[in-house]
Prior knowledge:
This protein is α/β, with parallel strands linked by helices.
Amino acid sequence: xxxxxxxxxxxxxxxxxxxxxxxxxxxxxxxxxxxxxxxxxxxxxxxxxxxxxxxxxxxxxxxxxxxxxxxxxxxxxxxxxxxxxxxxxxxxxxxxxxxxxxxxxxxxxxxxxxxxxxxxxxxxxxxxxxxxxxxxxxxxxxxxxxxxxxxxxxxxxxxxxxxxxxxxxxxxxxxxxxxxxxxxxxxxxxxxxxxxxxxxxxxxxxxxxxxxxxxxxxxxxxxxxxxxxxxxxxxxxxxxxxxxxxxxxxxxxxxxxxxxxxxxxxxxxxxxxxxxxxxxxxxxxxxxxxxxxxxxxxxxxxxxxxxxxxxxxxxxxxxxxxxxxxxxxxxxxxxxxxxxxxxxxxxxxxxxxxxxxxxxxxxxxxxxxxxxxxxxxxxxxxxxxxxxxxxxxxxxxxxxxxxxxxxxxxxxxxxxxxxxxxxxxxx
Length: 427
């Protein structure tokens, strides 16, 4: 391996697994983060995020001396920037972290280095933001150092598998930069590596998540239409998906996660007049928390009723509440004056500024259990306790994940909101 020293800036859900994977195959990896707790934990062989298999991999790499963490960059052969790109109140991308990370590595660059940005960024960020910052420091991107964008495309819970198996897109500031970056990832990526321009790589990642966002908006709109027309939306989806060229997604309480909820806005900000479908999809998905609260209000006698809110994270079996629609539902219910019992077995108390209840505490005296996340723990609930502890056992399952056996619990999902279906389709 010609280039064996790697510096990864940003040790979040993408940066840390990426750093650990490179260390596993023999790179000398230094991870950089402004979070001193994360740095200290990593240097003890521990992790500060939840991801399948990551704890063991980090521990092994640290003990082998191939992975360490610091608060500032070090000299390396390759630099990977994997910092967040949040959006501002107007939904435009905040590139502060990307810009800061780029400036931070400048003092440590040397001829022949490869700089790769994995952060999700709006189109033309590499050309119009990152490359000029490096040029201002006296470098010629594409000539004396190589610059590329390699968007991450992994699923939480499967990150270590998909880092290896998924196709990777390498977009260079020029052709040689794309080739140099591809050489870096070939050290462990088994999937195809596709070379393109930086701007095409940027747009391809955004379109992957925009595709999903638009399709989720389609079925979320179907739920609203079906509620008005008294149709079982979930049955409609099931029937439509028997068509060989139709694959409708499942509806939910909204769209969460930094990528899926934010990426479409990165396109919209660059071409707002042309992004009509993207913008409408965002409005539909952003409206779902309020729609859920409206349905809860219909189920309950008044705003003094207690709701047991199950699940805060944006998806099942993760501990990330970032951009989670469940948090919006919670805020809306609080504004309505409802008493809440909030339960999520994957979220730690220090992650939130409100009290987290146990299962029993949450359902005590509640008149409705509202399931907002499809954690495995929610798929089979203690029905005896639900009947025993709740006033009027109603379960509103926005993820269609709970399986009940008791007839003493009224079960509502997005197919049963206002359906007048009088028979069950038999296979």
